[in-house]
Write a structure and sequence with these properties.
BCAA_Transport_ATP-bd_LivF, 10 helices, four-stranded antiparallel sheet, 10 strands, amino-acid transport, globular, alpha/beta, about 35% helix, six-stranded mixed sheet, binds adenosine-5'-triphosphate, ATP hydrolysis activity, Rossmann fold
Length: about 240
């Protein structure tokens, strides 16, 4: 479905992505692992049209060339990003945030159906539709950010560190919800520090270091990989 590469991205002189190639198939859940500064957020931004890679890159969704299109076109074509820090509208209510998520031309006709899906996935949002978003807990705000992205009818939902700053019990609920989103047929591309939880819902994964892909494999293979175990799963070398 999505195929990208080799993507290089500079911030001034700093090379944040150095020829990264990555793919996500329909219905797949793919996780991107890597230490702080490895380039994971930059990769998601490039895949969402929010950062412009060097022109030698290729970026296709079902064969359609995305390179150079504005970010709203990426959303219109079905690629949604839940950014780190969530990016919800804090002064608006839950209901208003969801409504804004369905602003694209292709999403608007499906607004009722998508809202029903979101409120079924996250009953807490259903109870709090009139609440001002910034007054909600971190976990609820993350649910709202995911819900808002779902309102755009994505085929590929990308999440940047969704569990950041959340208590373990809330993280558990969040990953359960991601598992259910996956079952609806939406492909997921997840950047996560919580390697254990993300590998548990993933089919495959990539390992990044210093702007490059340094490893790839099935979730099971990555779980068994000594480098992954040492760096992310608390194994003693
Ligand atoms: N807007 C920017 N301007 C300059 N340098 C940047 C910018 N954004 C990111 N970088 C640098 O690019 C590199 C990759 O950053 P990126 O945020 O993509 O990494 P990351 O793997 O997502 O890290 P983290 O887990 O800490 O968010 C880092 O060295 C970072 O300092």
């Amino acid at each position: 479905m999505l195929s990208a590469g080799p993507i290089s991205l500079h911030y001034g002189k700093h090379l944040a992505l150095d020829g990264v190639s990555i793919g996500v198939d329909a219905n797949e859940t793919v996780v991107v692992l890597g230490a702080n500064g490895a380039g994971k957020s930059s990769l998601l931004k490039a895949l969402a049209g929010l950062a412009r890679p060097a022109p030698s890159a290729q970026l296709h969704l079902d064969g359609k060339d995305l390179l150079g299109l504005p970010a709203h076109k990426f959303l219109e074509l079905g690629i949604a990003l839940v950014p780190e820090g969530r990016g919800i509208f804090g002064d608006l209510t839950v209901a208003e945030n969801l409504e804004l998520g369905a602003y694209t031309r292709h999403a608007r006709p499906h607004e009722q159906r998508q809202r029903a899906l979101v409120l079924d996935l996250f009953p807490r949002l259903a109870e709090r539709q009139a609440q001002i978003a910034r007054t909600m807990s971190g976990g609820e705000q993350q649910m709202l950010a995911i819900g808002r992205a779902l309102m755009s009818c994505p085929r590929l939902l990308m999440l940047d560190e969704p569990s950041l700053g959340l208590a373990p019990i809330v993280t558990g609920e969040l990953f359960q919800a991601l598992g259910r989103i996956r079952q609806t047929g939406i492909a997921l591309l997840v950047v996560e520090q919580n390697v254990k939880a993300s590998l548990a819902i993933a089919d495959r994964g990539y390992l990044m270091d210093a702007g490059r892909i340094v490893g790839t494999g099935t979730a099971e293979a990555l779980r068994q990989d000594p480098a992954v175990q040492r760096a992310f799963l608390g194994a003693v070398a």
